[in-house]
Predict the structure.
Amino acid sequence: MDQTPDERPSRGRDGSSALLLGHSQQGASLFGQRHGGVGDYLRFVCQTLVCAIGLVDHVVRFGHLVAAVLLGTLAFAALPAYRLELPAPPGHEPGFVDAPHPGLVLSKFSRFKNKILNPKIWLSSPHMGDNELRYVQEAFATNWIAPLGPHVDGFEKDLATCCGVDHAAALSSGTAALHLALILVGVKAGDEVLCQSMTFSASANPIVYQGAAPVFVDSERQTWNLDPETLQAAIEDRMALRGSKPAAVIAVHLYGMPAQMNRIQQTCQHYKIPLIEDAASALGSRYRNQACGSLADLSILSFNGNKIITTSGGGALLSNHEDWIRQARFLATQARDAAPHYQHSQIGYNYRMSNVLAGIGRGQMEVLDARVQARRAHYAFYRERLGSLPGIGWQEEASDSYSNRWLTTITLDPALSGGITREDLRLALERDNIESRPLWKPMHLQPVFAEAPFYGAGVAEELFEQGLCLPSGSNLTQGDLERVVRIIQSLF
C-alpha cells in the first residue's frame, strides 16, 4: 500500500522513525506541516530569518521589548514543521525526511551569534611570548626530543636563579615534585602528614601514594593559607594521640598568595618536622623579600597550562640540598643504577621533563615579570571597580608579602549583598560566556578524604561557600575586564 508524504515514516540516521532532531513527525505547530525540495526549505528559513531580523530592528528602534518577545515566541511556535522531498529514480515514489524546524535553526543561529558577539573569556589561559617557539625549534633541529637535554639543564638553572636556591630538578608535574619531596624526607606507609585543607587535591594525593594518611588543617582569614596556630595545635594533638609526631607538613601559597611562612617555619623547626613548600602557583611571589620556592627544606612549582607560566604540563623540585635534588633526578628517571645494562635497586618513576617542554619553559621565564605585572594590574582593576559593592571581600596581601596574583579571588557574603550569592555571580558570568570558578573545595570535605582528621574552625568551609575566582589571565584585554565587571555590577 502506497503512503502519502504525510503518512510515510521518516527515518533518522540510525534508521529509526524518530525525526532527525527530535521534532514531532506530525509537526507540532499551529500551521501543520509543509513539504518541498531543499531549495524551497532554504527560502523558507531565509524568509523566517528576515522576519526575525526585522523584529530585532523594531526592538532597537522603538524599545518594545516585551511585545517583541511575546510576538517572537508565538511566531516561532506557529512555524510549520518542514519535510524535505528526496529525489527518486523515474517510476519510484519520492522519499521524505524531516528537516530542522526553522525555529531551531534560528535558535542555533542565535547561539552562534552569541559566541561571536561574546567570545569566551577564560579563567587563566596560556600566554606565550616571542621566544618559546625558537627554543622548541632548536630542540627539534638538534634532535633533543627525549626527557633530558640542554633545555632541561638551562631551565633548571633559570628556576634556581629566579627562586634563589642552589638546585632545581625539572619534572613532569608539580604533583610528581611533591611525591618525590615526600619520599626524600622519609614519609612512609602508616605515617601522618599535615596538609592545608584549602587547596587543590594534588597537594594531598601524593601523601596517599606513600601509604601515609593526610591530616588537614584550616586556613587563617587574611591570606587564606595554613593557620599557624591551628597547625601547632594539630601537631600537639596528633603526638598525644599517636605517641609520634607527623612525618611532614605541607604549606601551600593559595592562588599565589604567600602563607605566613615565618611562623610555620618556626613551628616545624621546634618539633623537628620537615616542611614542604607547595609553591605550585606562586612563582614570582615573595615573602619578606625572599622568593616563594625557597622557603622550606624542599619546594615545588607547577607549570600546568593555567599557571602564571606554563610548559604545557610540568613542575619542578627545588632545594639547597644537592643530595636531595640528585636523588630526585635519579628516582625521576626510573631509578636506573649505574650499570651498562638496565639494573634497578629501588623503585623509580617516569617523572622527568622533556627537552621540548623545557624549551617552552625557558621562553616563558623570559616573560615572567611581565606576566606577574599584568595579573597584579588585573587585581587592582577589579579592586577599584568592584571594591565598593556590598558584601565583596578580598584575599589580602600582608605588608611583608608580594603576591603574583595568579588568580584574582573574591568572597561574597549574602548577608551583606542583599542575598546575592557567589553562585549568582558565577552563573551570570557563565551566561555571558565567561569562565569563573568557586574557590577550592576543602580537602576535608572531599568524599575521598571523608575519614581524614581535620583541625579548624570552619574558615575553609566559609571561603568555599562564598569564594569565586575571576578571569585573571595575563592575556586578557581591557575590553574583557570591562565585560566581567559590567556583568557583576549588573547584579547589584
